[in-house]
Amino acid sequence: MMIVVMKVGSTTKEISAVIARVKKLGYEAHLSDGEERTIIGIVGDGNIREYAEQFQMMDGVERTMPVSHPYKLASRDFHAANTLVPLNGSKVGDRKIIVMAGPCSVESREQILETAHAVKEAGATALRGGAFKPRTSPYVFQGLGEEGLKYLAEAREQTGLPVVTEVMDSSMVPLVCDYADVLQIGARNMQNYALLHAVGKAQHTVLLKRGMSSTIEELLMAAEYILSHGNTRVMLCERGIRTFERYTRNTFDINAIPVLKERTHLPVIADPSHATGYWQYVEPAAKAAIAAGADGLIVEVHPKPEEAVSDGMQSLTPKRFADMMRAIRRVAEAVDRTA
Ligand code: PEP
Ligand code: MN
After folding, report:
1. What is the residue extent of each domain of the chain?
2. Rounded to the nearest whole angstrom, what is the distance from the C-alpha of residue 107 to the centroid of ligand 2?
């Protein structure tokens, strides 16, 4: 549905031309002739938005106002109840807050196994760890690749924790699916449409991270690509956006959490590690995220953050992670959830 607002003083000829165009496109036009101006409501099945700019350019048209959201499958209008994404016997989007934890990068077999046992002990639901890393510089550690995926799979065998790991390219989707329980789409790839199509087709659970300069609507439109393949196992992740502020790595857009929860049925995960960039801010941001309605967290944990090859500054030690878990449980209870 869309409304075309005609300019004050638009002519009968201009109005008729708009109506003719509406009919030609197979839609119905409803005319509302006011004293000053005329508005035309366009209704019918299909994506009339696609033609908004064309109508906008017609003589006598002041503006066009799409009534429905540009995203459809992701919208609460389409699916009112929360979508519950199964993860390790839990359902993400349900009452229990789920926590995915682990290092930024898988660095060695020992490192990932040690971290997996520690986060499991502290109550994590899933293990995170990057084997393919989207690094800003091509001259730094790029991840262990398939070797890293194998270590993650071994950690899952030992702990029972499902594995969340990033896939950076559509050609790599089959390989990463062989090892991962959840495919992470990183912030830098949120609008890699070939990749979004590929993970949609794969029918694998996806954690879709918000691009660092993407709007909430762009995040929902990216989710729409995955959903368009009938894959509804999609979790959205707020991981901070780029602003002028330099005392934190990114600016945690806490607003995005209630906004997303209102607009979409998909679960919302917060990443307080990338959102802040410093371990000492991770727990406060995690608590805020839960208070704001997040369904889960993804948190970086490293046995020796000072030796981490990536994101050490924002990584919690296992002890600090266990402390954070205790702290968030109290916030979860305060908002009628569990963790
Ligand atoms: C990560 O999770 O380690 C990562 C690279 O995150 P992002 O894509 O949000 O920067
Ligand atoms: Mn990281």
Report:
1. 2-66, 85-334
2. 12
Residue bearing the CA closest to ligand 1, atom 10: 187
Question: Which atom of ligand 1 is nearest the CA belonging to 189?
Answer: 8
Q: Indicate which atom in ligand 1 lies nearest the CA of residue 210.
A: 9
Do 30 and 40 meet the contact criterion of CB atoms below 8 Å apart?
yes
Distance 137 CA to ligand 2 centre (A): 14
Is the confidence at residue 205, as pLDDT, over 90? Answer: yes
**What does pLDDT average to over the chain?**
97
- Say yes or no to pLDDT of 68 above 90: no
Q: What is the CA radius of gyration of the chain?
A: 23
Average pLDDT over every residue of 180-197: 98
CA 270 to centroid of ligand 1, rounded, Å? 12
**Residues whose Cβ atom is located within 5 A of ion ligand 2:** 104, 311
Cα of 326 vs centre of ligand 1, distance in Å, is 25
Specify which residues 41 forms β-bridges with.
3, 30
pLDDT of residue 158: 98
pTM of the prediction? 0.96
Question: pLDDT tens digits, residue range 143-177?
Answer: 999 999 999 999 999 999 999 999 999 999 999 99
Nearest ligand atom owner, CA of 136:
1
pLDDT digits (tens, 9 = 90+) for 257-279: 999 999 999 999 999 999 999 99
CATH superfamily ID and name for 85-334: Aldolase class I (3.20.20.70)
CA dihedral 85, 89, 94, 97 (to 10 degrees): -110
Residue 98 backbone phi and psi in degrees, to 5: -100, 145
Tokens 């002041």 -> residue: 62
CATH code of domain 2-66: 3.30.70.1140
Q: Biggest alpha carbon distance in the chain? A: 77
Nearest ligand atom owner, CA of 308? 2
Per-residue model confidence as pLDDT tens digits over 18-41: 999 999 999 999 999 998 899 999
The helix, strand and coil proportions of the chain, stated in percent and rounded to the nearest 5, come to 40, 20, 40
Ligand 1 environment, Cβ below 6 A: 104, 130, 134, 186-188, 209, 239, 274
